Amino acid sequence: MLEHSLLTDLVSELPQGLRLQRLTSAVRQHFHCGAVALLRLEHDTLRPLAADGLVREALGRRFQIAQHPRLAAIMGSPQPVCFDHDSGLPDPYDGLLESNAGEPLPVHDCMGVSLTVDGEPWGALTLDALQPGTFNQKERDQLSRCIPAIEAAIRMTRLEQERHSLSLLRQQATDDRTQVIDEGEIIGRSPAIQSLLHEIDVVADSQLPVLLMGETGVGKELFARHLHLQSPRRNAALVHVNCAALPESLAESELFGHVKGAFSGASSDRAGRVEAAHGGTLFLDEVGELPLPVQAKLLRTLQNGEIQRLGEDKPRRVDVRIIAATNRQLKERVRDGYFRADLYHRLSVYPIPIPPLRERGNDVLVLAGHFLELNRARLGLRSLRLAPDAELALLRYPWPGNVRELEHVISRGALKALSRGAARSDIVTLSASLLDLDSGIAPATASPASEMQLPDTHPVITHALPTSLQAAVRTVPARLHPRRPGTPSQQLGGRRARTATGRQQPAQAGAAAGAEMTPLWTPAPVATNLLNIEYYADGVSDRIRPYFIHKKVPGTPPLPCQNGCSRKLPV
C-alpha cells in the first residue's frame, strides 16, 4: 500500500535526499510504470530532485515550463493530468528513460500532478508507463488520494534540512543547498560538495573574512555568491573585483576611490568599490595579484574599517565583509615577498578549499546533464544526451579546467554533432569521439605564463639533471637572487643574470682554473661527485634553477662562481 509506505517513512529519521528517493521508488512500484520523477519549481523552471527509471544525467536538467507543454498542463491543474498514448505533445523525457536510453519513447501513457506545500506551489510528480492503457480513472483517483502523503513527505524533508542548518534563524529559509542564484547555480550531490555547502552555511552568519582556495574553473565566484546569499548581508550589495584585471596604476583608485584633482584626468570625486560594498560584501577574486601598495591600504580596511580616497587626507568609515579567492599558494607568495604576511593572516581567518571536479565523483554526470539541457534549449534541439562511452570518458577524464572545461566540452560536442549532419528534430547523442577528451592528460600544475622567459640561446632543460641533483637544487633557499616585483627578467635582486654571452671570456676563465665548463643544456655524463653550481630565481614560479654547472676535472681545484662563492653539492 503506497500510503502506508509513505507514512512509515514520515516517522523515520532518514538522511537528506533519501526520503524523496524512496518516495519516487515507491510510486513507481505501486503504479507499475517505467519512470517517476519529482520536480521542484524554481521560478519558471522545474528541476528534478529525485527520479527512478531515468538516466543519471536527468538530475542535472532544468526544464523550462514554457518549452514543455506537458509540464505546463500539469502545473496548470490542481488535479492529476493524464496524456494518452496518442497524445501529440512532446515528452520532456524523450531519450532519457533507462530502459530506452537514447531512443525515442514508444507509444506510452503519461500522468502527472502538481504539488503544493504550505499553500505555495512546490513542483510536480510525473509518471511514465511504456504500456498503453496503464493510467485510467482508477489510477487518477489513487494518485489523488496519495497527494497529501506525498506533500507531507516533501514538507518533512524541508524541515529536516532547515533543522540541520542555521537558516532556522533567517526569515527566508531555503529547502535546498544548491539553490539558483543570479549568474549560476551550484549543482552537485557528492559528499565533498554537500560538506562544503554545509561549512559555508555555518560560516555565513559570522562576519569573519573568508578565503576561498581552489584551482581555476572550480567556480569560486559561485561559492562566494552562495556565501553572501546565506549571510545576514544578503539584502545588500555583493561587489565583485577581479584583482588580476586591475592595472597597478589604477588599482588604488578603483578600490578606494579618488577626489577631484588627485591625478591627471580625475575631473570629479569618485567612490571606489569598497565604498560601493558598504553594508554588504566585497569579493576580491584573484587577491594574490594585488600590488603591494594596495595591499597595505586593504589591510587598514580589514583592521580598522577605514578607507582613504586617493588625494584625500580624511579617512572614511566603511562596513564591509571581505571574501577573497585565489588559485595560487599565498604562503609561497608571502615567502617570496609578493604578498604581505599580515594581510594574508587577516584574509585567511577562515580558509575554505574548494574540491576540483575530479574529486567529486558522479557530479561530473549531473553537471553534464545541466549543460546538455542548456545547449539543447540554446540550439533548438529535440533532445541532447550522452552515449555510454561518453559518460565513461567524462568520469575518467582528470578535468584540469574543472567545471568551466566541462561546460566547454559539452557545448563543443553539441556543435560538432550538428556540423556532422545531426538534425535538430532528432535525439542527438554525443559519443566520446565528439567530446575530444584525452584520458591521459594530467592536471596542469603551473601556468606557462608564470615561467621566466630566458634568452633563446640559454634554454632551461631540467630533465637533463640527475635525480639526486634535482633534489639538492630544491633545497637551496629562494633568496639567493630574489627578484622583486616590477624588476625585468634580466635583472635579479640588483644583479644582472649572467648569460654565456655576458661572461668575460668563460673558456679562458675555465682553462685558467684548470676546469672544464659544461652548459646545463648540453647533455654530458657526470664523472665526479662534486659540482659547482650557480643559480637564478625567477621570482614568479617560485623555483630555483641551476644556471651553469662547472664539472670538476680530477686533480684541479673547483671553479669559483662569478659572485665569489663556491657551492658544492653531492650528485
Describe, in short, the structure shown:
32% of the residues lie in helices and 19% in strands.
Give structural notes.
- By secondary structure, this protein is of the alpha+beta class.
- 32% of the residues lie in helices and 19% in strands.
- A hairpin with a 2-residue loop joins strand 18 and strand 19 (495-496).
- The longest helix has 27 residues, at 137-163.
Q: Please, how many helices?
A: 17
Give the overall shape. elongated
Instruction: Going across the biggest sheet, name each strand in turn.
Output: 3-2-1-6-5-4
What fraction, in percent, of the residue positions are helical?
25-40%
The average pLDDT score comes to 76
Sequence stretches where pLDDT stays below 50 over 5 or more residues: 165-183, 439-553, 558-571
Radius of gyration: 31 Å
Structure class: alpha+beta
Number of β-strand runs: 23
The major pleated sheet works out as: 6 strands, antiparallel
Strand content: 15-25%
Straight-line distance between termini: 77 Å
Label this structure with key terms:
single chain, alpha+beta, six-stranded antiparallel beta sheet, five-stranded parallel beta sheet, 23 strands, disordered C terminus
Annotate the secondary structure layout:
Layout: H1 2-10, H2 18-31, E1 35-42, E2 45-52, E3 63-64, H3 69-75, E4 81-83, E5 109-117, E6 120-129, H4 137-163, E7 180-181, E8 184-185, H5 191-204, E9 210-213, H6 220-229, E10 238-242, H7 248-256, H8 273-276, E11 281-285, H9 292-304, E12 306-307, E13 316-317, E14 321-326, H10 330-335, H11 341-347, E15 350-353, H12 363-379, E16 383-386, H13 388-396, H14 402-419, E17 427-430, H15 432-435, H16 467-474, E18 491-492, E19 495-496, H17 506-512, E20 516-518, E21 530-537, E22 544-551, E23 568-570
Parallel strand pairs: 9-14, 9-15, 10-11, 11-14, 16-17
Antiparallel strand pairs: 1-2, 1-6, 2-3, 4-5, 5-6, 7-8, 12-13, 18-19, 20-22, 21-22, 21-23
Helix pairs in contact: 1-2, 1-4, 2-4, 5-6, 9-11, 12-14
